[in-house]
Amino acid sequence: MTAQQPAVKKYIVRLDDDERERLSTLIKKGKAPARQLLKARILLKADASEAGEAWSDSRIAEALDTSIDTIARTRQLLVEEGVDSALTRKHSPKSARKRIFDGAAEAKLIALACSPPPKGRKRWTLTLLETAVVELNIVDRASDNTIGRTLKKTVSSLTSRSNGSSRRRPTPPS
After folding, report:
1. Does pLDDT of 95 surpass 50?
2. pTM here?
3. Pick from 173, 155, 154, 157: nearest CA to 165
């Protein structure tokens, strides 16, 4: 990590006591995603307020084994949008792929998978489903991986609902 650091920092991190306490608590608990914990550590090390450490980006990068670009982006997000934006990962609508199976197409896929398999087959395979959804004009194209993920998501959500409801006991009237 021998990348050059800009001479003048454009985004200076200055945390108030509440923000610093929140970040410290987040790190101490250790229950957050690793990316979030890394960004919290970056912000605490980069804090240029009186209570902060005001480390240089290169020192932070070396200590936390991350890139200077990650540190710069984290600083920028904090200054422009606040602590929450700096800690959470955003998905850009420009870069996100459009979903192949919307709600209606997903329902048709599930109905197809639950229907009797084609003649000469004991069960539906992902490859058979892949061919069938295109032939039936449910979607223009789909891979067997996409179909498998969609069905797995549906089955796991149905299983969790049925397991959760069977464990509940009615509350006695007061």
Report:
1. yes
2. 0.53
3. 157
